[in-house]
Amino acid sequence: MDTILSMLIALLLLLTGCGKADRIDTDTTLPPESPAATGSQVAVPEAIQEIPDGYFEAAGEPGTLEDLYYDTWESFSYEEKTQPLQKHAVIYLPYGYDENEKYDVFYLMHGGWGNENQTLGTPENPSAFKNVIDNAIENGDFEPIIIVCPTYNNTSPEDSASFSLALQLNRNLHNELVNDLLPAVEGKYSTYAEGTSAPELMAARDHRGFGGFSMGSVATWRTFQNCMDYFHYYLPMSCGTTLDDDNIFAAAEGWGPEDFFVFIMTGTDDFAYSYVENRVEKMRRSDLFTEDVNFAYRVKEGYTHGGLSSMEYTYNGLKAFFGGKKPSNSVTSTAYTVDTPIEDVISDPVFGDYGRLIFPVDEGYWSGDTLGQLRLTWYNYIDPDKTVEICNYMKDHAAAGDVIFYDIYSEAEKAADPEKRDTGLFFFKGNPGEKFAVCNAGGGFAYVGAMHDSFPHALELSKMGYNAFALIYRPGWDTAVEDLARAVSFIFDHAQELEVDTSCHSVWGGSAGARMAADLGTYGPGYFGGEDLPRPGAVIMQYTGHTDYSENDPPTYVCVGTSDGIANWRTMQARLEAMSALGIPTEFHAYEGLPHGFGLGTGTVAEGWINDAVEFWEKQM
Q1: Residue 203 and residue 191 in contact, taking contact as beta carbons nearer than 8 Å
Q2: Hey, is 53 helix, strand or coil?
Q3: Could you give the strand order of the β-sheet that contains 233-237, starting from the edge strand earlier in sequence?
Q4: Is it the case that residue 35 has pLDDT exceeding 50?
């Protein structure tokens, strides 16, 4: 009896998607976009990304839902064609759908106890997830696509309530799918299929995918088994049942690694987790599958078998399969050069609305028309080649789907204080699981000179394997250090998604940015409105006349030029000597003849100082 009860509970979870509530971040959440794995056909996120804030609200450019009715046959006697049926599917058409354009098409199956109206709703009553699709397309997360929501139910929604019946209906779905549903959809709407014959539909397989959650995931695996000729992309999400995997995987025989892609997702608290883990391990042992080449597996910590999980996984799958191939704001792959106008970088669509933060938002503190001509107030030794390298790094990673910029404030906070819209973290990713550093540019608390005084440092740190962030803050000491405290708190809050180690992190800064780093080290983020977090494991400072310290200050590294007319080197040295007397580890370097703002010091006597600073940080680990 206990065994039967356990089976019934598992069945109920599969059909209803109940369990512990999914986590929803109501403040700041990570925006979309993460990198594609090397060799992968698609932009697979390194971690499952949360649906961005505001996406459940109505979009400015909404798509439309339509009813589609088509004729088919009762599943169990399909071959005999003794019982004709008329079935219904819900069709999503993107905003501005044009019959003269060709669209990729994705077939999205519902879960247990559901029907074709479950996922996107009906034309009369759209679901909140329909808004997510609208916003994702409008914001360029993935290209405009057609989505088809069918049902495996044979005659009524009650078919889905019977576990064994639902499995049988899924086992027979492929007949209806390729013979009736595909011709009905792609004969009416503008897809890449040139016609509705089998050869014409097969010829368009690279522009077609199939996915589903829970029982819809069973349908996905059955489609993989029976319809490989018709579909390239497969999205099985939380398949909580045992399938004849060996027979299903055999469908991949004869196909190359570039001929299909399977993206599998589930959560650690999902009852389906163990089923999915077992299936993935079989795939890893098979010669037919190569991870992050023709299949990917991602798990969300703490997620259950619920509605938010289903929506989030679907969002990630569509973004991976159809993101960035034909965006409406398409970007050329032409690299920047020293002759590239700065305005072209700022307005490059690949950066979205954060391109304006790459250079100082206050134009009174910088000059020059091209990357090679860039000049920043109070800064010397600006390296045009490094400027170009940084901009190309950002462009290449953004175009590949990597997240290179994070908001640190919620939309509500930015609405209450519009100046917070000019803040954020640029991310220069190192090795997953490695420690992180936050780099703060100077600018006299009048502007943020990131292109010379924090971007180069963050890029070099990432090359060494460390995860580095460059903060764009609000000028003014009180707001700047408040933003730094929020930024460090954001990184701690999202450490798992960012794949960073929060132990012994470091905070870096030059000039005004060094003062920010020192203050955070002395007082901690909580003092400035952030969370009550550990102080940095090391503070790395360049050229600032800061004198404040305490016996609790972190280990501190300092470098400065002896000809600095803004930050006297003796002032910096005296502070470190006092800290050292308290037993705080310190290291001091004064470079003969260097003025203020030498940055990385390329081509000067200070060149290579960043390696000394990293070695100092590593000693504290």
Answers
A1: no
A2: coil
A3: 64-73, 84-93, 146-149, 105-109, 208-213, 233-237, 261-267, 295-300
A4: no
Determine the Cα angle at 534 with ends 530 and 535, to 5°: 90
Alpha helices in 464-506 (DSSP H): 477-493, 495-498
> How far apart are the C-alpha atoms of 289 and 107, rounded to whole Å?
23
DSSP state of 36: P
Sign, Cα dihedral of 198, 201, 206, 208: negative
Provide the pLDDT confidence category of residue 40 given band limits of 50, 70 and 90. low
Count other Cβ atoms within 10 Å, centred on residue 258. Answer: 12
Residue 561 has pLDDT above 80, yes or no: yes
pLDDT band at 444 (very low <50, low <70, confident <90, very high): very high
Q: What region does 560 belong to: left with phi over 0, alpha with psi -120 to 50, or beta? A: beta
Domains and CATH numbers, the chain: 2-322 (3.40.50.1820), 405-620 (3.40.50.1820)
Place of tokens 């007082």: 523
Please answer whether residues 14 and 112 qualify as being in contact, where contact means their C-beta atoms are separated by less than 8 angstroms: yes
Query: How far apart are the C-alpha atoms of 121 and 161, rounded to whole Å?
Result: 19
C-alpha 307/C-alpha 216 separation (Å) is 13
Contact 609, 559 (CB under 8 A): yes
Tell me if 109 sits within 8 A of 150, measured CB to CB: yes
Phi-psi region of 287 (alpha: psi -120 to 50; beta: other; left: phi over 0): alpha
Q: Is the pTM of this model over 0.85?
A: no
Q: What beta strand segments (E) does 223-322 contain? A: 233-237, 261-267, 295-300
Q: How far apart are CA 45 and CA 498, in angstroms?
A: 11
DSSP per-residue codes, 559-612: EEETT-SSS-HHHHHHHHHHHHHTT--EEEEEETT--S--TT-TTSTTTTHHHH
Three-state secondary structure call for residue 159: helix
Residue among 478, 495, 345, 350 nearest 419 (CA): 478
pLDDT of 158 reads 73
Q: Are 127 and 121 in contact (CB under 8 A)?
A: yes
* C-alpha closest to that of 106 among 85, 84, 128, 136: 136
pLDDT digits (tens, 9 = 90+) for 595-611: 999 999 999 999 999 99
Alpha carbons 174 and 75: distance in angstroms, whole number: 9
